[in-house]
Amino acid sequence: MHLIFVVYDGMTALDAIGPYEMLSRLPGATVTFAGVTAGPVRTDTGALRLVADRALADCDAPDLVLVPGGPDVRAQTSDTALHAWLRAVDPATTWTTSVCTGSVILAAAGLLRGRTAASHWLALDLLPRYGAIPSPERVVRDGKYVTGAGVSAGIDLALTLAATIAGPDVAQSIQLATEYDPRPPFTAGSPRTAPPALVSRLRANPGLVMST
Amino acid sequence: MHLIFVVYDGMTALDAIGPYEMLSRLPGATVTFAGVTAGPVRTDTGALRLVADRALADCDAPDLVLVPGGPDVRAQTSDTALHAWLRAVDPATTWTTSVCTGSVILAAAGLLRGRTAASHWLALDLLPRYGAIPSPERVVRDGKYVTGAGVSAGIDLALTLAATIAGPDVAQSIQLATEYDPRPPFTAGSPRTAPPALVSRLRANPGLVMST
């Protein structure tokens, strides 16, 4: 099974690395990090470079594609080379997936028309611009399209997918191997549970998280 | 505040990227990924390269050091260049931290003698070899030494540290921005909660996770 993790300048690292850490442990998985061009990309903070080992155009037909998000939604909705590649490979994938605003990329590429999708909670209202139906759920499956909420949701998305692809025993073994027994010190991870003042502050200044 | 995330060939990516995604959002944080030599390292699966932007020897005195783990514990306990650097900078750090078997590296470098530390559940029994006291907790603080359990525990470790460093409002804002509202589809993330047969299987074949 060939999995392609898309990388690009300005992406959020954990969007891709969370699910990579889970899905790369699937029996028979072959994982490739790929970008519009091969070589390093710099993530959104400016502090980290990940390497695209291959150019997307040079990748074999993937069974699974995962598209991470990032704060610069304007760039993501106008990246025609990535969109064109996604449109080209999507008909033959078994799974087309995204984390965070990666769903906005899939939607802007025209792949989520009429489909329900998750995204970062601050980006959900962008999805209808491209004909997608936003959902506040953490992991959303609509046919072969599996989309996750913001940043850290990719881990839950990947374990859900691992169970569907390889069964619950494999998914649980991956969870045990990566000791995914989360204990957040606060219950502030969703606009439904965080202190309202913090939610309002991020809504008023989404530039801290993303620039639309 | 200068944070150094150590990278090396064979490391587990999420060990570093989870806490990086949280701690890089601290106000005033300057983050550097650094290795014994500058340049790309290949992570444990062979499928991903991260770039060390600088050599450790060229980094200014860090306020915080984070050491990730990886499956090849034998290499980690004999990496004298990394150990020497850790011993050199540790006296001036505010926080010396690790995720997963990163604590075995700290311990092998001689920094955890008489201290309580977390590690991957399969590696806890390695800590006493170096005078450290193993703890099954997910995040352990002993003075300025903060150590996390396996792989995904770095996210909880980082939010705990963020609250200590910058206060609970900042930590909760980071949690909300990264939508860290975990919903694992199974409760298999710890040897205490996973199906016993899966725990036994990983114990019998730890090579799936690490080679000691």
TrEMBL record, chains A, B:
<dbReference type="InterPro" id="IPR052158">
    <property type="entry name" value="INH-QAR"/>
</dbReference>
<feature type="domain" description="DJ-1/PfpI">
    <location>
        <begin position="4"/>
        <end position="162"/>
    </location>
</feature>
<dbReference type="GO" id="GO:0006355">
    <property type="term" value="P:regulation of DNA-templated transcription"/>
</dbReference>
<dbReference type="InterPro" id="IPR029062">
    <property type="entry name" value="Class_I_gatase-like"/>
</dbReference>
<dbReference type="Pfam" id="PF01965">
    <property type="entry name" value="DJ-1_PfpI"/>
</dbReference>
<dbReference type="InterPro" id="IPR002818">
    <property type="entry name" value="DJ-1/PfpI"/>
</dbReference>
<protein>
    <submittedName>
        <fullName>DJ-1/PfpI family protein</fullName>
    </submittedName>
</protein>
